[in-house]
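In this supplementary section we document a worked example of the pipeline. Step one takes a protein sequence of length 101 as its only input; no multiple sequence alignment statistics are reported here. Step two produces a three-dimensional model, which step three serialises into structure tokens for compact storage. The input and output of this example are shown verbatim.
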Amino acid sequence: MNRKYSGSHPNSEEQNSKNNLSQAEARLILYNDDENEFSYVISCITEILNCDLQQAEQLTLIAHYKGSITIKTGSTGSLLKLSDLLKAKGLISAVHQNDQK
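The serialised model returned by step three reads:
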């Protein structure tokens, strides 16, 4: 590849950064609770987020020890749907808007 010409517009990095912010405008937070077993929470996360077992285990442990964890970022609408699915399973979750600067 020729390093002198990358084919990108000088402001393309700034534009890409803005696009990424708009695509990840919110965070889905999972909160720790004292009601559900680890195995149940792990199974709910793998089912709803379609992630692998190891990732679900890590998310569950972090939520347990830290009190909460961001489990997904994206558009508010899609995250609200996922949050509703988690809540229907008895888990505590919420969608928070990212701070726009």
